């Protein structure tokens, strides 16, 4: 099973959006990439190709959406998102054999497109696999069979590995050695 943190399909863009809020290991002080990212068209297209780049007037809504989505990571059926779906309704159309149902936003703004991606993830039971690392808060997709992954990466050598799980094990070991 892959140790990657990437989510399948469009959900990877939702993951990238959520990770615009970061808690860098070096500083342990929150960093927010979203305000500057919306001003950089090329970087936005690279990071979030299918999400329309919002204007400055949409920033507050996107910050609120990011906070609310982060709050329900790992929840298979988050009722807290009802207000967001009421605000940005999603329509369902018939797709193909691979993806029988397609979820489309009613309006074309960034928040609406993100909610349509979230709807598809909920319907495909993939949303609950999107988790936030308890240490660095990095959002990762849990590919493990029994959804047992807790840390963003147990192995520092993986491409996006921060080794939070390993760091925490070392901390626990040292604590035990100190006897407190
Ligand atoms: Zn982590």
Largest sheet report = 2 strands, antiparallel
Neighbour order of strands in the largest sheet: 1-2
Instruction: Determine the fraction of residues in helical runs and give it as a percent range.
Output: 25-40%
Low-confidence stretches: none
Q: How many DSSP E strands?
A: 6
Distance between the termini: 37 Å
Strand content: 5-15%
Ligand list: zinc ion
Total domain count: 1
Structural class: alpha+beta
Count the helices. How many? 7
Q: What is the succession of H and E elements?
A: HEEHHHHEEHEEH
Describe it for me?
It is a single chain. With 180 residues, the protein is an alpha+beta fold. It has one domain. It is 37% helix and 11% strand. It is built from seven helices and six strands; from the N terminus they run αββααααββαββα. The protein has helices spanning 11-18, 34-37, 41-47, 59-71, 82-87, 110-123, 164-178, and strands at 21-22, 31-32, 90-94, 101-105, 130-132, 139-141. The strands form three sheets. It has a two-stranded antiparallel ribbon with strand order 1-2. The protein has a two-stranded antiparallel ribbon with strand order 3-4. Strands 5-6 form a two-stranded antiparallel ribbon. Strand 1 (21-22) and strand 2 (31-32) form a beta hairpin. The chain starts with 10 loop residues before the first helix and ends with a helix. The model has no long low-confidence stretch (mean pLDDT 89). Bound molecules: zinc ion. Zinc ion binds at residues 133, 135-136, 138, 151-152, 162, 164. Residues 133, 135-136, 138, 151-152, 162, 164 line the site of zinc ion.
């Amino acid at each position: 099973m892959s140790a990657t943190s990437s989510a399948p399909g469009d959900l990877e863009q939702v993951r990238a959006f959520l990770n615009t809020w970061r808690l860098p290991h070096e500083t342990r002080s929150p960093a927010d990439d979203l305000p500057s990212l919306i001003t950089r068209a090329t970087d936005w297209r690279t990071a979030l190709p299918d999400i329309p780049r919002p204007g400055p007037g949409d920033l507050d809504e996107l910050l609120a959406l990011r906070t609310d989505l982060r709050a329900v990571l790992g929840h298979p059926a988050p009722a807290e998102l009802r207000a967001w779906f009421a605000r940005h309704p999603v329509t369902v159309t018939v797709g193909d054999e691979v993806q029988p149902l397609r979820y489309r936003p009613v309006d074309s703004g960034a928040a609406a497109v993100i909610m349509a991606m979230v709807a598809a993830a909920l319907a495909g039971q993939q949303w609950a696999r999107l988790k936030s690392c308890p240490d660095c808060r990095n959002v990762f997709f849990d590919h493990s069979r029994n959804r047992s992954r807790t840390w963003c990466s147990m192995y520092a050598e993986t491409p996006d590995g921060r080794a939070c799980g390993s760091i925490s094990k070392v901390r626990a070991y040292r604590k035990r050695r100190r006897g407190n």
